[in-house]
């Protein structure tokens, strides 16, 4: 039953993704690519005083990548760069150690049943990580 | 029916551990059906295919848990149209497939899998019986499988409670190519791609040596006039293509007294009828297993297209013979 709910939530994110091709004035952007699945994604962030004021993504990617990017855009908007990095670290460690996600991230629990899609789900977050490192450097 | 036994056998090593992935149930239009097997080694390399999409990569990742815990694992991919859109595993619209992952190790005698492969190499048949766990019982379930050289239910499967999946085990199709001319190359190589056992024959050593066949092709120096029906017992099909009328006739005479299920004759109908007449027979008497002009009529003229048409016809003949005998059916024994 829960699996179906996660699936429905992911599908909803895929079909109406938050942040997809959202028009922002980016302070930093980065490209991500998953050669196994062919996902191509570009993540852009706008920032003010170390806070993410806007985030968007675009590119050709599978449904899981897109849904995960949508969840990411909902989660990290208005976070500081430190908080955003903590969110990314949580995502990465949860997938690595198979620790269930809670609350707004819970649709990602559906990915545990399909480990081949784990990298698809991680890609937007890893691309955001690259963005944040640029932002810090600039 | 499992077609890639030779490929699996070539990969299998009794000193190593594997995970055997078995389709135990399907619904809808899935690529493969219940009884199909795939072997996964500890390097996540898969031998065989269970689906046409990304399922293999996902299964290989699930197999890691089986390698580490040595428990069976039951995977249920129930993909409605929406779910397939989301996960993109290529099962097809409204497809559902249940896969059982079994640990094969030296400690559990690879669950008789080595016995199965040895039997295949000896070109014998049998059935592989796999005990099926109920959903939710996988962790406490002891993996069990039995290979039986007979088609009746083995004692353990008959006396124990629970369900058993019975999978037919039939050796790879074995083809004798009679004549090592250049047109034998695409035929032999394509037959190898099919997972078949291929032996090319010619009386000319130079002809056999000159042609660069795939290493998996056997080569035998044989004169048509010395061929004997007992020799052909190991073959399901023979393709007569020496391009020499006398040699072809001699091979045909031998093959007609053999148990070969498919005798393909290169050349037009008139040549076929002439050869049969010369050996004192006629086409009507052997129509169920003599095929000439050889190959399905698919309209190609190149050696590759002809090879394709011949192998398609062999496949068709072998499948129809197996279907009649019902030996190709996997089923669940309660």
UniProtKB/TrEMBL annotation, chain A:
<feature type="domain" description="NIF system FeS cluster assembly NifU N-terminal">
    <location>
        <begin position="6"/>
        <end position="86"/>
    </location>
</feature>
<dbReference type="Pfam" id="PF01592">
    <property type="entry name" value="NifU_N"/>
</dbReference>
<dbReference type="GO" id="GO:0016226">
    <property type="term" value="P:iron-sulfur cluster assembly"/>
</dbReference>
<dbReference type="GO" id="GO:0005506">
    <property type="term" value="F:iron ion binding"/>
</dbReference>
<dbReference type="InterPro" id="IPR002871">
    <property type="entry name" value="NIF_FeS_clus_asmbl_NifU_N"/>
</dbReference>
<dbReference type="GO" id="GO:0051536">
    <property type="term" value="F:iron-sulfur cluster binding"/>
</dbReference>
<protein>
    <submittedName>
        <fullName>SUF system NifU family Fe-S cluster assembly protein</fullName>
    </submittedName>
</protein>
Automatic annotation (TrEMBL), chain B:
<dbReference type="InterPro" id="IPR027051">
    <property type="entry name" value="XdhC_Rossmann_dom"/>
</dbReference>
<dbReference type="InterPro" id="IPR052698">
    <property type="entry name" value="MoCofactor_Util/Proc"/>
</dbReference>
<dbReference type="InterPro" id="IPR003777">
    <property type="entry name" value="XdhC_CoxI"/>
</dbReference>
<dbReference type="Pfam" id="PF13478">
    <property type="entry name" value="XdhC_C"/>
</dbReference>
<dbReference type="InterPro" id="IPR036291">
    <property type="entry name" value="NAD(P)-bd_dom_sf"/>
</dbReference>
<feature type="domain" description="XdhC- CoxI">
    <location>
        <begin position="15"/>
        <end position="78"/>
    </location>
</feature>
<protein>
    <submittedName>
        <fullName>XdhC family protein</fullName>
    </submittedName>
</protein>
<feature type="domain" description="XdhC Rossmann">
    <location>
        <begin position="175"/>
        <end position="314"/>
    </location>
</feature>
<dbReference type="Pfam" id="PF02625">
    <property type="entry name" value="XdhC_CoxI"/>
</dbReference>
